[in-house]
Amino acid sequence: MANIREIAKLAGVSVSTVSRVLNNHPYVNEKKRAEILKIIEEQNYVQNSNAVHLSTGKTMVIGVTLPLVNNQYYSSIIEGIAAEAVQHHYKLMVCQTNNNPEQERSVLHLLKNKKIDGLIMCSRSSSCETLNEYAGYGPIITCEANDTTSVSSVHIDHYQTFLIGMEYLMKKGHRRIGYCIGRKNSFNSQHRKRAYYEKLRSIDVTPTPEWSFEECLTIQDGKDVVGKLLQTEERPTAMIVSCNHIAAGIIKEASRLGISVPEDLAVVGCDDQPIGELLEITTVSSSSTLMGKYAFEMLHERIWTQQLVGKKEEKELSPVLVERLTT
Amino acid sequence: MANIREIAKLAGVSVSTVSRVLNNHPYVNEKKRAEILKIIEEQNYVQNSNAVHLSTGKTMVIGVTLPLVNNQYYSSIIEGIAAEAVQHHYKLMVCQTNNNPEQERSVLHLLKNKKIDGLIMCSRSSSCETLNEYAGYGPIITCEANDTTSVSSVHIDHYQTFLIGMEYLMKKGHRRIGYCIGRKNSFNSQHRKRAYYEKLRSIDVTPTPEWSFEECLTIQDGKDVVGKLLQTEERPTAMIVSCNHIAAGIIKEASRLGISVPEDLAVVGCDDQPIGELLEITTVSSSSTLMGKYAFEMLHERIWTQQLVGKKEEKELSPVLVERLTT
DNA sequence: ATAATATGTGGAACGCTTTTCAGAGCAAGC
DNA sequence: GCTTGCTCTGAAAAGCGTTCCACATATTAT
């Protein structure tokens, strides 16, 4: 296929002029411009974007890492990112990392070798050092809190989320409360646990270890929780659960085993997945789509503003309680 | 940051030799290779991938179009694609098209300007001419049947799916059966409708127009169906529904309005989304993840085999009935 | 001993576009 | 009449790696 030189030759002008036409620069004689456009059309010419990228040093692509693609929480974030990205003419490179630091590093590497202009990490398992290191090659935003010095973040206030959930349950009279969270030692989980323990202490309740469930990631994990609860001496009257599909598993399994929700067991979830609405789950919700939108905005600003290099910023989203039928 | 020329100079060799080291070509003296690697390390050098792309004419990126990111069906397909892609060192550019031909064309364009090596369309709204046109610039696979001459596809046999569902319902004694499908005139929908009408005719039942619902895309659409059914003179005893989240909407709304499932209304869904399992929905299922896997395999073969250019291939996935509690 | 093959290396062309710089022509302003 | 400032254009450099071709040396085979 033709290249810019050929177009220039056919039009009897220099490549500079053709380039100006392609990029809508002013200072091109209207007649020539029309002539060149006609030839471009005839030759069915388009720029080779790799040459453009090489020359400009930008690709108009941003990377997005997430542990797994097929998950509503992450899909909602991407939805938010995607909507914003399309408006600013960016494309998305979506990279599944399986929470594997190796795979994550290979994505960070894309910043270094200039395949992407910036990176949004919906979740991360790399160390802070690694993050800081790669932040030198291009802007990175995480959708979780992080304690690096240079990587900004947009995140849900998970402490606040569990606080609201706990206060709500306690106001309803619950004192025997358990919890389910995902990855045991993630930043998010730590904040959630802190709220949980603080709130229990505030009413002088000693936490019951058997009512704490960690590494709950799938619907099945939620179902399993109910089985385990049945084996405990005394059962909690309420569970606060870090996401609604786990909550859904709990609710379904409970109803199968004749435990009525909310009478025997109240359940509060913590996100805005549609399954929560479908099953009428009470939830402390923040919009993950909105988080994605903010993440893109922050990233975009950093791509275009050199002053922001290394300047850390944190944006926290406040959750709201959505009362439904499981409490 | 250093480039290959600088590395060559520091090592006292030519750029060719450095390039050979970078690409693991044989015929490089081991001692030199070690020396060069050391310098690369010291200089913290990595290739500029845009230069590599320009030079090789490949990007190792494939595009994926889908109408919306936040949808379990499409997420499952991507999951299958992603798993396969990572093994072959391809990255994914995920592009939301909102079923808008304009946006779809902008993705097809990526093929023309060499930003991607191939394209998988999970759904498409472009015309066959457009597809054929762009197929000239790189391999395209659709995850729906299509009647172009040059674009291959991997798709679920939707005719078979509805056939199995209908036969099952009829064997259970149903004669008053309605349906819900998504986009009215998509290929998929046409095949489904054909099976529906053929089966009804085979037992001499005249279809009831008010029991046909098209453009059902969201859970809410499913709920609305129940409302509309209540207004019909006579209600169907069963519904066959093209996807499980619509089915979920129907079931939830039905139970809210005191219509018991399956006694008053049996519901058969048609995919393998987890919501189907959660709500125990009987479904005629094919694995969308597997479809994604096959789509990648087919695309990959076409990227590497020039002989296949323009040679159309179609792969059909057969569904199986999964009997659960809604029938 | 000679031919043939394998190993190792450099030069230069190729892939393609953007952008800076220099300069030409022309109009307006003083 | 001369300066200033637009408008318009082209040459050339810069961005960077891959690969073909030519050539040299070292083995191995005949």
Automatic annotation (TrEMBL), chains A, B:
<dbReference type="Pfam" id="PF13377">
    <property type="entry name" value="Peripla_BP_3"/>
</dbReference>
<dbReference type="InterPro" id="IPR000843">
    <property type="entry name" value="HTH_LacI"/>
</dbReference>
<keyword id="KW-0805">Transcription regulation</keyword>
<keyword id="KW-0804">Transcription</keyword>
<dbReference type="GO" id="GO:0000976">
    <property type="term" value="F:transcription cis-regulatory region binding"/>
</dbReference>
<feature type="domain" description="HTH lacI-type">
    <location>
        <begin position="2"/>
        <end position="56"/>
    </location>
</feature>
<keyword id="KW-0238">DNA-binding</keyword>
<dbReference type="InterPro" id="IPR046335">
    <property type="entry name" value="LacI/GalR-like_sensor"/>
</dbReference>
<protein>
    <submittedName>
        <fullName>LacI family DNA-binding transcriptional regulator</fullName>
    </submittedName>
</protein>
<dbReference type="InterPro" id="IPR010982">
    <property type="entry name" value="Lambda_DNA-bd_dom_sf"/>
</dbReference>
<dbReference type="InterPro" id="IPR028082">
    <property type="entry name" value="Peripla_BP_I"/>
</dbReference>
<dbReference type="Pfam" id="PF00356">
    <property type="entry name" value="LacI"/>
</dbReference>
<dbReference type="GO" id="GO:0003700">
    <property type="term" value="F:DNA-binding transcription factor activity"/>
</dbReference>
